[in-house]
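Dear colleagues,

For the upcoming journal club I promised to circulate an example of a predicted protein-ligand complex. I picked one with glyoxylic acid because it came up in last month's discussion. The inputs are reproduced below in full, followed by the predicted structure.
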Amino acid sequence: MGPGVNKPKLFSTHVLYEEPRRCLAEHFDVEYWTGSERPPRAVVLQRVAGKDALICLLTEKVDRELLDAAGPNLRIVANVAVGYDNIDVPACTERKIAASNTPGVLDETTADFTWTLLLAVARRLVEGDHLARTGWWLQWNFDLLCGTDVWGKTLGILGLGRIGRAVARRASGFGMRVIYNSTTRAPAEVERELRAEFMSQDEVLQQADFLSLHVPLNAKTRGLIGREALAKMKKTAFLINTTRGPVVQESELVHALEEGVIAGAALDVFEREPLIPDGLRRNNVVLAPHLGSASIETRTKMALIAAGNAIAFFQGKRPPTILNPEVWPRS
Ligand code: GLV
């Protein structure tokens, strides 16, 4: 688009990286939130007003209030995340606003981080780091911070989508047995490749030494791991959560950890981020501030996908990762 031509107006709630910024600049009149913290809600509502496009992060709730604040020009909401529980997609659809996410590019990175957490909690890395760092490590000892073996154990996966599969694939290097449950059973060749056995959810809960959650957050999965599910797990098992916090009933998890119902947990996501209940600040819990996809390479790709969706829309093309294709083609 040449100078002098009116470009559509876009608000991005993050300054992103240089490469996506360059792409956006060619096609949009872009306004960025440049603060280092997330923008206050009132600021988002104010700055989205009159925009044609919005690029947002999972911290922004895109609900009717925001869509009202944006006004009638808004045509696309491009989320820089694969999870889109922050977006009221039906409300977007009603208004013929396209919504998009960033599937595919973060699977391997998130799987790496899932394993980072799994290994850290099993082998007590965070406790060890603390001991070494603070100078309290006085001598090598036979039983110092002995953890739990990972190799040869059973990995249970709930949700064998793209990320669940990437997590399962890594298990073969540890000689683990992989069991899973998912709303739809994976094709036989995928099960063969991953050496993953399909089981009922209860069987996965009962047999897993490490239970890793990879279901998306929706009405069916909210609170999936509560008192009953935790009680089915082995006392020696660990829960790993890199999907969305509300999939786990946090107060029930605290209770299970206090009562020794399970051995520990490694958590990247929480019910009310960034709040973490005191009951989770325990030695047998590894905590991370929602870092699953946080590599520079992957975050760049995610931002490029979001930018690409917005650009495609205004070029009259279908946004490649549109969530509500029924709004396309525009009527
Ligand atoms: C991160 O949590 C994402 O959904 O991309």
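Two points we might discuss: The longest helix spans residues 296-314. The chain has twelve helices and twelve strands.

See you all on Thursday,
B. R.
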